[in-house]
Amino acid sequence: MKRKLLILVLIASIGISFGQGTADLMRLSQINYGTSTSRSAAMGGAFTSLGADGISMSINPAGLAMYRSSEVSFTPIVKFGSNSTNYSGTNSYNRSNSKVAIGNFSVIISGDSDFTFGIGYNRLNDFENRSSVYGYSENTSIGQMYMEQLYGVPASDIGSPSGDPYQAFYKYVPSMWNAIMGYQAGLVNPTYAGDEYNMAGLFNYQDGDIQQPQSSLSTSGALHEYSLSGAYNFDNKLYIGLSLNLQNLIYNEEYRYGEVTDLNNTGSLDNFTLKQNLSQNGIGFNFKIGATLNLDYLRIGVAYHSPTWGNFRENSYSNLTVYDKEYSGYGFSDTPTLYNNYKYTTASHFLFGISTTIAKKLILSADYELVTYGSMKYRNDLNIVGYRTPTNAGAIDNLQNLSTYYDGNNFYINDMVKDFYKSASNFRFAVEVRPVQILFLRAGYAYYGSMYRDSALNDYGRYQQYSGGVGLRFDWFSFDIAYVYGMQNNLPSTFFKYIADDGYTVKSSGIINSKNTNHTILLTFGFRPFN
């Protein structure tokens, strides 16, 4: 077995998301119009040519000019989600989660003037998710991957002296930190030479031993947008609008990977657990402009959403705990907290919508949206020092791909984005029926297309959403309720995978597939005190 000194190994740890990778840019660029106001959610977000709703500030600000009176609206939401996982075609596992949040708050000032002013908040995406996956009868351990990573690294460099327990971590790049913890916690041990490692030490794992891998991922947070908007009505024929927006990203992730050994194993290792935590907080600015042409029974709307230019900070840390079979001893190690700071530019959005009103009883609406995912980028230098330890190797941000975009000094993630992502087409359709003066019945469908250039990944990039709702309108008060069902297949991943420079590979045997389904209930209360 050939191996090579791996001080410059970059991406050889387990990982669901990657610092300075494409997953972070995707989180900032994807918008879901099913988590803001009840009317827009019930109608699938097909609102580019419609208006008089709080979501207009975030879809097409020209829609604000369609208000006939001032209004204050407020939307609480309740979300229920589940994630089903499948490992190598078997062992499916379901985890559920729930969330109560605010989807929208807006204040619209309109009246006799043709100018309408709006200030508000819209929730543009939700990251609440829980998933778990289990494997059985594996004969490869992640500890063997750590052995390969540490080959050639002197044991004297990666110990944990009492006066400075984090000394070793600062000597090596963050992508090596999990392997260093493996040594400090006793999962891997140096051989007689001190720069080659095995798993035959304090907690030994022998070749041929069987273990059951298991992992869990918990994420939370949301993408929030705060808007200051204005719109003008030209004789009810043309509406134009502009919104200036601040976006705030809050994202938290807790990942756990562990192995439990078989009772019949010859080695003394019982189990170990790796925990990794990540917190991100970002803020950015964008603008949105739009226009809607009213041709009596037909409305045509267009809008442009600029990229969001922003900055996000993150911190991450990990720990590893190892136990023997008798629980008479254990090993433990943790990393220092790693801080990073990134500047980013998200994708742009181009929207076109058309709608018709029939006998003032029926509205049909359709939207097309083009999202330029290939234009996402980081605006600061990305280098080895700032790269945090990854978690499960996915189909895009994996070892092989990321290694290709590293030249010994920098990661060229922006080139990677251009090579792996393309513009995506989204379609949204809606119907609203008004059987009596105060009652509105609504339904919608949204299809978000794949953003991956590789056609083999198209099924994982798509997202579908079905919705429906009811609205009541009175002179000074309105009430809307909506239900939204969404589903998406996540990118496939592995528990761990490492390929050395000479091609030697250590990996788990199967592929992890998972599917998210979400159920969201929205309630919007509107008040028009000056109507």
Describe what you observe in this structure.
The chain is mainly β. The protein has one domain: Porin (Beta Barrel), CATH 2.40.160.60. Helices cover 11% and strands 50% of the residues. It contains 9 helices and 23 strands. The strands form 3 sheets. It has a 14-stranded antiparallel β-barrel. A two-stranded antiparallel sheet has the order 5-6. β1 and β2 form a beta hairpin. α4 crosses α6. The protein is elongated.
Report mean pLDDT, rounded to a whole number. 87
- CATH fold-level label: Porin
How many alpha or pi helices?
9
Uncertain regions spanning at least 5 consecutive residues: 1-19
Strand content: over 45%
- In one word, what is the shape? elongated
Please give the share of residues in helix.
Answer: 10-25%
C-alpha end-to-end distance: 80 Å
**Which structural class fits the helix and strand makeup?**
mainly beta
What is the CATH first-level class name? Answer: Mainly Beta
Number of domains: 1
Biggest β-sheet description = 14 strands, antiparallel, barrel
Strand tally is: 23
At the fourth level of CATH, the homologous superfamily is: Outer membrane protein transport protein (OMPP1/FadL/TodX)
Q: What CATH architecture do you see?
A: Beta Barrel
Radius of gyration: 26 Å
Side by side, the strands of the main sheet go 1-2-3-7-8-9-10-14-15-17-18-19-20-23
